[in-house]
Amino acid sequence: MKRKKISLFFKEIYYSRNVLWQLVAQQLILRYRRTALGYLWTLINPLLMMSIMALVFSALFKADLKIFAVFLFTGMIPWNFFNSVVTQAGTAFVNNEGLIKKIYLPKIIFPLSIASAVLIDTVFSFFALFIIIIILGSPLSWAVLFIPLAFLLLFLFTLGIGLITSIATVYFRDLQYVILIVMQALFFLTPILYKPDSLKGKVAFLMTLNPVVPFIELFRAPLYLGSLPSKSTIMLSVLFSLLSITIGLIIFLWQEKKIVFRL
Question: How far apart are CA 80 and CA 200, in angstroms?
């Protein structure tokens, strides 16, 4: 019975693929509608923010701007994806309450459309970063071919977390604001502005408990160090991805039919 349920679950997603794409396209188009530069803001906005951060923190840390910029950008790309999906997925069902109550759709397409739209944004930002790395003269190696796998692992991990937060927020509406605070705290426990070995004591121990850390290294190693991530980093990332998406799907399938009654 469980196999039939899971099979039906994925069939529903496939049959609703056109609706899923429409939701993704809607998010991409409406975000920058009626702006002069339109979708170019997808590239300009994160790059401007990261450039400002690179200027400020390279001055604070007295680091070489070119080197620190690449170091920072390779950490911000996966972090921005994780942060955006988790915070936006938290309101995936609440914001689509009217549509969910009017017609039957596989509920998963709402958090899935958010993750997919943010992924497209992130991939564009990555290509912009890639150009910047070339301009800055940073060394590139064949290790960059690992990046698609890094995106896949990050997507699965983040989608699993997003499914959990999307369900939890239906029951606890205040959670959407708590998530924002937690993500801000998690940002400083993630080695984006600093190297992992720069922390000492209890703070360093807390960082070792942060599941986002290996995903940062998946991107930083090929782009900043010019090498493949370590085997332990890859194994941890695969483990966290499988655990996250599995737990996320179990919780989602358990609560899917109750969503409409809780909205």
Answer: 25
Which segments within the chain are labelled E, that is strand?
none
Encode pLDDT of 53-67 as tens digits.
667 766 666 767 677
The CA dihedral of 184, 190, 194, 198, to the nearest 10 degrees, is 120
pTM for this predicted structure: 0.87
Q: Which stretches of the chain drop beneath a pLDDT of 50? A: 1, 4
Q: How far apart are CA 14 and CA 167, in angstroms?
A: 22
The predicted structure's pLDDT at residue 2: 52
Q: Of 220, 223, 225, 249, whose CA–CA distance to 237 is shortest?
A: 220
Helix, coil or strand: residue 212: coil
At residue 183, the pLDDT reads 92
Question: What single string gives the DSSP state of each residue in 66-113?
Answer: HHHHHHHHHHHHHHHHHHHHHHHHTTTTTTTHHHHHHS---TTHHHHH
CA distance linking residue 61 with residue 239, whole number of Å: 34
Which residues in 116-137 are b (16+ Cβ under 10 Å) and which e?
Answer: bbbbebbbebbebbeebbeeee
Residues with Cβ < 8 Å from 90, sequence gap 6 or more? 162, 165, 166, 168, 169, 175, 176, 179
Q: How far apart are CA 171 and CA 125, in angstroms?
A: 34
In contact, 210 and 189? CB cutoff 8 Å: yes
Contacts of 80 (CB under 8 A, 6+ apart): 46, 122, 125
Query: Do 230 and 221 form a contact (C-beta atoms < 8 A)?
Result: yes
What Å distances lie between residue 11 and 4, 106, 251, CA to CA?
10, 10, 19
